[in-house]
Amino acid sequence: MWKKIAPLLIVLSVALNLAFAGGWAMHAVRTHWTSGGSCGKAEQRPGVGCPLHQKLGTSQEQWKQIEPRLAEFCKASQALCQEVTRKRREMIDLLSAPQPDRQAIAAKQEEILAGQRRVQQLVIEHLLAEKQILTAQQQQELFDLLRTRSGCASHGPVMMGLGVADEASSRPCAGTCPSE
Q: What pTM was estimated for this model as a whole?
């Protein structure tokens, strides 16, 4: 009996680990750029329109450089996150089949990992671009915040992105981009 159950438990474990890693990455992105404020939205009052950047002491001149990049980042990351979420749902469908196709599951897993790598690359590129605008002190504060907010304790629902959390809340820039 264990010979039949063990492979399914391994596949389920891999799927849950993927969900956790993807949820953590998406949450780290969302936490950084969405502090309940209006990052990326046209501001109706003068000044920096993002609570994170306000906390960093970003000047209006810096914000003028950051804001368009942030809006583009939000747009690109939303598209990638939606793609990864769709592929995770497809993985769940494959896993829930009466006779799971291990080759199809492995292929879907590779698609999910590739999507997660693209999200991570997008975040890295955005951080490197923003780093060029911020002062050394602001950079230190930003990366200190990222270090403290990207651990396991702050990842949100373990099953984020698998349909357990509502779809809008699983996007990194939900409610913060100009198009929303």
A: 0.60
